[in-house]
Structures are given as C-alpha cells and as structure tokens.
Design goal:
about 280 residues; alpha/beta; Rossmann fold; 2 domains; six-stranded parallel beta sheet; 12 strands; about 20% strand; globular; NADP
Length: about 280
C-alpha cells in the first residue's frame, strides 16, 4: 500500500525515439509492489527535438531536479561518460553506461546491459552452438552484448559496424580482456555469416524509428540462431524474416527486463522480483 509517507524515488530514461518503452511501467509497478512511490519519466530526444549535444544540459537538470537515477539508451551510452563523476568496474571495462545513480551530489555510471543480455541468452538459447558468432553494431549496447557473448563462451566474435574504426577499437578492447583472437572485425560480412553459428543485432535497425535489417535476408539460413536486442517492436523485421527461414530466435524482451532488474537495484537499494517484472513486461505486449 503506497501512501504519502512512502519513500519516493524519481528516475528517468534519456534516449531517442523511446515513447514505446516499457521501462517506466516496469519500474513504477515494481516500486509500487515494494511500497515505493517511484516516478519514472521519459526524456525523449526525438520528442524534444534535441541531439546528443543536449546531454550535458539534461544531466545537469536531472541533478538539480532531484532525480535519484537515470537510464541511458541509444545514442547516449558512450557520450554520457565524460559527464559523470565516476564509473563502476563494469561500465569502465565496457566503455558504456546505461544506468546512472545520482546520490550525495555525485553521478556514477553503471552498466546492467551485459548482465541483462547474458541472463536472457541463458534462458532463451541455452543449448545453441557458439563457436563463431557475428555481431552487428559496436556502439554502447554492442560493447555490453559483446562482453556478454564472450563471457558466455563464444569462441570467436566477428564485429560488423558502419564505423570500421569503432568496430576495430571494440575488438581490440575485447581481445585485451578475453584473450587474443576472441574478437575480430568482419571484413566480408557474407563470408562471416556463412561460417557462423549465430548472429546478434545490437544496432537500432528494427526499431519503430529505424526500420530495416542489418544484413540481407538471403544470408539467413536454417542452421543459424538469430538474436535481436530491439524490443519495440518485440518482433523486428530481422526476427520475422529469420523465423520464416527456420532459424531459432531470441527477442530483446528478456534483456530489457533483466537490465531493468539491475537498474532498479541501483536506484532503490532494494532487491526486485525479476519474475514479477518479466510477467509485467509480457502483460504489456
């Protein structure tokens, strides 16, 4: 039962094209279940007609307005880092932040994306081959997912990105952490996909604001598993096409839930009920 005397938490999400996000409802419902007056607001760059250059102003405003925490999504997960007072070990290792805790005048960045992806993968594709995997995207989310994939035992991760320099920097960082040869930049995408057990999309392609697929449909084949981290819509063009080709698929819903589980823990200091949050997420479909 929530009353005026209940503890209050103010949180928000900064990103582009996030009106369909289920994150606010997940946090607010779980807060209510735990007796918190948790208010979660969307700070949508698309709706505000702002670019990433507005991020310093938005972070300053959140500090002044008494926010307890922020989630950070595309395209701000790396741009936010210079604006923070500190980073967790995970965020520093990944070079990306999706959760900012505002407490005692300090803004500290964390990364719950990699845990969210890993937990979703363990549950959704526990028994698939993972000798070679191709990942599309080397941005903030891509960094977290790559870390998760190599932690999960992927032998060689081939990275594809429109910015070859960014893909190279991520591959180098991953090899430094996991060992030489564990991550490479994919030169020939068709050849890399042909040799792969699975592919993962970490780009915005497939989102309502960014329709499309990261690879040609004719590269999909029955033996591939296909994972997408986009969750609005839950069924992206990539997943729909992959299922039609007979591929096993994994949508981004579980990652969205489990990264929120980690963020809720940071924002509130309370232990969330992950299964309850998953049920609530599914009920919004």
């Amino acid at each position: 039962m929530i009353s005026d005397a209940s503890p209050a938490v103010l949180a928000g999400l900064i990103g582009y094209g996030i009106q369909a996000s289920r994150t606010p409802a997940m946090h607010e419902r779980e807060g209510a279940e735990q007796g918190l007056r948790l208010i979660y607001r969307l700070i949508d760059l698309a709706e505000l007609r702002l670019g990433v250059e507005a991020l310093p102003e938005l972070i300053t405003a959140a500090r002044r307005l008494g926010y307890d925490g922020l989630n950070i999504t595309y395209p701000c997960k790396q741009a936010v880092i210079p604006l923070l007072d500190g980073l967790s070990d995970d965020a520093r290792a990944l070079g990306a932040v999706n959760t900012v805790v505002l407490r005692d005048g300090k803004a500290v960045g964390h990364n719950t994306d990699w845990y969210g992806y890993a937990e979703n993968f363990r549950r959704g594709l526990p028994d698939v081959a993972r000798h070679r995997v191709v990942q599309f995207g080397a941005g903030g989310a891509g960094s977290a997912v790559a870390h998760a994939l190599l932690t999960l035992g992927v032998g060689e991760l081939s990275i594809v990105d429109v910015d070859a320099g960014r893909a190279g920097a991520l591959a180098e960082s991953l090899c430094g952490h996991f060992g030489a040869g564990r991550a490479v930049v994919a030169g020939d995408v068709a050849k890399a996909v042909a040799a792969a057990d699975g592919i993962v999309n970490t780009t915005p392609l497939g989102m309502a604001k960014s329709p499309g697929m990261p690879l040609p449909a004719d590269l999909l084949r029955l033996a591939l598993w296909v994972s997408d981290i986009v969750y609005f819509p839950l069924e992206t063009e990539l997943l729909r096409t992959a299922r039609a080709a007979g591929c096993r698929t994994l949508d981004g819903g579980g990652m969205a839930v489990f990264q929120a589980v980690g963020a809720f823990r940071h924002f509130t200091g309370l232990e969330p009920d992950a299964e309850r949050m998953r049920r609530h997420f599914d009920s919004m479909g």
